[in-house]
Amino acid sequence: MRSGSSGKQPRPWLGFRRVPGRLALGVFRGPLWLYRHNKGWMLGRTFLMLVHVGRRSGQSYQTVAMVIADDRDTGEVAVLSAWGPGADWLANLHAGPAREVSIGRDRFEPEHRFLDNDEAVAVGVAFRRRHPLRLRLISAILGWGDMRNDDVLRQFVHDHPIVALRPAHATLQLTQRAQEAADARTFGTVRSRRLGRP
């Protein structure tokens, strides 16, 4: 016989490893709400929204992730799977490309790559150096442990895959710019020779 209460344990404030706490849920639900209401620009480039395709359903899904690396030269940004390698959005990226990334006021159709362990550690160390207080706060809310310890950080990025996303046309643009630069150097060499310059 069921008692008058629902039998549910109150949701804790902190923690993410087993049961998301209320603060942990708020960390991601708040930014998602803002992006869905065209207010994602209020977050700057701290969070992005990823629109990915269900590997079985073919439907579009929206996920918000914290940006841990942002290369303005290439347009590439990196996010991690806060709840580990079993996340649905991560499995969907293994199955195929995402449809869209929104970050701040920017939107683009992305291509993605999964960082190997060495690059993931380097990204984690760089983020820790740039945002020590933010990392300590988010680690406390999500139950990630003390990221000031290198061994803890190394194990964390091993257990929480990091994905880099960049505009799908960026690779082509970089290749074109490199070719244009090479052509310019070749033209300059030929022109110098015609003018009798060494």
Structure write-up:
This protein is an alpha+beta fold and 198 residues long. The protein has two domains: 22-167, Pnp Oxidase, Chain A; 170-198. The protein has six helices and seven strands, in the order H-E-E-E-H-E-E-E-H-H-H-E-H. The protein has helices at residues 22-36, 88-95, 117-130, 132-142, 150-159, 170-194, and strands spanning 47-53, 60-71, 76-80, 100-103, 106-108, 110-114, 162-167. The protein has a seven-stranded antiparallel beta sheet with strand order 5-4-1-2-3-7-6. A hairpin with a 2-residue loop joins strand 4 (100-103) and strand 5. Helix 3 (117-130) crosses helix 5. The longest helix is centred in the last third of the chain and has 25 residues, at 170-194. The termini are far apart. Residues 1-6 and 11-19 have low confidence and may be disordered.
Query: Helical segment tally?
Result: 6
Assign the CATH superfamily of the largest domain.
Electron Transport, Fmn-binding Protein, Chain A
Percent helix, as a range, is 40-55%
Low-confidence parts: 1-6, 11-19
Key traits:
198 residues, alpha+beta, Pnp Oxidase, Chain A, 6 helices, globular
A few lines on this structure:
The chain is α+β, with helices and mostly antiparallel strands and 198 residues long.
